[in-house]
Amino acid sequence: MSRKQNNGTPIEQVTVSPLDLPLREPFEISPGTQHHANNLLVTIETESITGYGEGSPLTPVTGETQDAALATARAAVELLVGKNIANYRNLVSDVRSTFPGMVSALFAVETAILDAYCRDREMALSELFGGSPRPVTTDLTISILPPEEANDRAARAVEEGFDSLKVKTGTTVERDVARVAAVHDAAPDAELAVDANQGWTPKETVRFADELESQGIDCSLIEQPVPADDVVGLARARDAVSVPVAADEVVFTPEDAICVIREDAADVINVKLGKSGLLAAADIASIAEAANVELMVGCMLESAIGIHASAHLVAGIGSFSHVDLDGNRLLAEDVISTERGPEIALGGPGHGITPE
User: Fold this and answer.
1) Would you call 166 a catalytic residue per the annotation?
2) For this UniProt entry, which residues form the secretion signal (predicted)?
3) Superfamily per CATH, domain 13-122
4) What is the pTM for the complete model shown?
5) Which CATH number is associated with domain 127-344?
6) Which of 12, 112, 178, 327 is disulfide-compatible with 302, CB 3.0–4.6 A?
7) Exposure string over 306-343, b if 16+ CB within 10 A, otherwise e
8) How does DSSP assign 289-336, residue by residue?
9) What are the pLDDT digits (tens) for 188-244?
10) DSSP secondary structure string, 234-248?
């Protein structure tokens, strides 16, 4: 593929709009239930190309409403118009320092900036992080459901080709064990992970792990079992169970990752672009690799735009052990035609997604 050689291209226009996407089925996690993904879409235009970015605010996790995220992204427009897209690091830094904490809005803006930069250079987004746009394989998430429904959902996932499933937990230990057991019955050969979304105490985490073990059910990962502000509790849970423990909601920034590693609080760090954005996610990955901590990548309820941006980071860095990029598989309709299976086929330039 030929590459354009230039000294940069000015941003001419930035557009921000809501992106409301109905889900195939209600998606219940311990903080609540969603029926729609109330996202935002950011487009950045130069004279010749358009870049696309998406954010998926979820108030219990990101602290934002859709309206707040839209307002932040619109306020960021004046920091971008007329600026050289080649200075993407400075642009991202300026936006993030101006609107700290507005992570979904910033993910959308940052993705649009990097997508526009890569499209202008006729390169895949993954190449910005050191790798070619190879296919990425994801698991599929089963939300908080009664055991019979969870069993049906798992059987359907196996029919669609998924051999790795993540089960949402964080209610009571008894209900959570019953749900995971039902999923295991339907998919006995699948790798099973669980995500408590901060719903347990350290003692409940131990009870859950012990009960699964007594039933002969293997669990590959327990994700964020305790509240995000309880790093000590996360470390206690990790020390008390044999199942690897992942930090998710506790890690938004590279500094958070350093804190988790210093406290020896997790075996795995979940890098989620909806919390950190692309450039900081790459920094978190470097910190985890240096500390010999495994990497996971997760998502919010994003369409192919956000999912493919995350998958390009995975392909570029190449060291993620756990991939949970199924957000668009949970939508009733994506922004492009999407296959139901586990493989995310990547292309370029940029993240390769132009909404239909």
Assistant:
1) no
2) none
3) Enolase-like, N-terminal domain (3.30.390.10)
4) 0.94
5) 3.20.20.120
6) 327
7) bbbbbbbbbbbbeebebbbbbbbbbbeebbeebeeebe
8) HHTT-EEEEE--S--HHHHHHHHHHHHHH---SEE---GGGGBSS-SS
9) 999 999 999 999 999 999 999 999 999 999 999 999 999 999 999 999 999 999 999
10) HHHHHHH-SS-EEE-
DSSP letter (8 states) at residue 283: H
The two tokens of residue 284 are: 């978190």
304-333, pLDDT tens digit by residue? Answer: 999 999 999 999 999 999 999 999 999 999
Q: Which of 4, 83, 166, 272 is catalytic?
A: 272
Q: Which residue out of 166, 168, 203, 275 is catalytically annotated?
A: 168
Q: Are 103 and 276 in contact (CB under 8 A)?
A: yes
Where do the domains of the chain lie? 13-122, 127-344
Could you tell me if 56 and 300 are in contact, meaning their C-beta atoms sit under 8 angstroms apart?
yes
Q: What is the C-alpha separation between 273 and 271, in angstroms, rounded?
A: 6
Q: Which pairing describes strands 136-137 and 343-344: parallel, antiparallel, or unpaired?
A: antiparallel
